Amino acid sequence: MWKTLIFVCVLVAFASSQSVVFKDCGSKTGAITAVSVTPCPSEPCVLKKGSNVSMEVTFTTKAEMTKLQTDVYAILLGKKLPFPNFPYPDGCKDSGLTCPLKSGGNFTYKSQLHVDTYYPEVKVVVEWQLTDQNGDILFCFEVPAQITK
């Protein structure tokens, strides 16, 4: 009975995970293991105006990180536009990370993106990146999305 209960718990945890297919867009001082976006039951991820989207990245480091900068962009018609008013630019705060990060470590970065009501209803590619103290890209990924009402 315990084996069955444990199996069901693992199955439920796996089913609720919303890992997405992502494109690495230039990770240099780190390597992405997995990207999860919630809610995102299918692709493109539907970003509803007025809602919050949670994002989790599991990654490894290739060097020690003492400072991290977060940048989030919308790529629309070939143009890379920063998401305005992103409230968590310091990747070492409010992200599940505590700097410094050791070289060769496994880490999970967590953040949220608020989809403002004034955003246009369009298909975009969301680009999310963390840069280190030297300006090198720790990780960078792209996920297709659709902003809707």
UniProtKB/TrEMBL annotation:
SMART domains per UniProt: ML
Keyword Transit peptide listed: no
InterPro entries listed in its UniProt record: Ig_E-set (IPR014756), ML_dom (IPR003172), ML_Npc2-like (IPR033916), NPC2-like (IPR039670)
Keywords: Disulfide bond, Secreted, Signal
Any one GO MF annotation of this record: sterol binding
SUPFAM superfamilies linked: E set domains (SSF81296)
Keyword field contains Cell cycle: no
Family that this chain belongs to: Belongs to the NPC2 family.
Protein name in UniProt: NPC intracellular cholesterol transporter 2
Species the sequence originates in: Branchiostoma belcheri
